[in-house]
Design a protein that fits this description.
The longest helix is centred in the C-terminal third of the chain and has 11 residues. This protein is mainly beta. The chain has a single domain, classed as Thrombin, subunit H (Beta Barrel). It is 9% helix and 55% strand. A hairpin with a 3-residue loop joins strand 7 and strand 8. It contains 1 helix and 9 strands; from the N terminus they run E-E-E-E-E-E-E-E-H-E.
């Protein structure tokens, strides 16, 4: 299930909104059915992540991947995420399952971004 952006009306115009993305540079590992691809995070939000598309990545829209995110020396978060966009440079994944013991850690990492919305920009994943 893809999370659709919300709409905000200003006067005669509708703006598409989405959960705010927090820019972050960190290591990530994409895993599925014995395949493993090192990558890096571009940004993270309350509903998903954007990772750099690894060379020779063979994923498809709708597939569930385990995304291991490594922040510094002592913070490691793994989630299950569904591919919702795949461009030439970036892959957009929405969270499908966040383990109970990682939810508070993820929301703490996001800080104020967890509750913010921002204008939707159509761009490469």
């Amino acid at each position: 299930m893809m999370i659709e952006p919300a709409y905000h009306e200003t006067g005669m115009h509708k703006r598409r909104l989405r959960h705010a993305r927090m820019r972050i540079a960190s290591a990530a590992l994409l895993n599925r059915a014995g395949d493993s691809y090192p990558s890096e995070l571009g940004d993270i939000s309350a509903t998903g992540v954007r990772v750099r598309r690894p060379a020779h990545w063979n994923g498809e829209m709708g597939q569930i991947w385990v995304v291991d995110m490594i922040f510094g020396n002592d913070l490691h978060i793994h989630v299950e995420a569904r591919v919702i966009r795949a461009g030439n440079e970036w892959i957009g994944l929405e969270f499908a399952r966040i383990p109970d013991d990682k939810q508070e850690t993820l929301w703490s990492l996001l800080g104020g971004y967890a509750d913010k919305l921002e204008p939707w920009e159509d761009r490469d994943a």
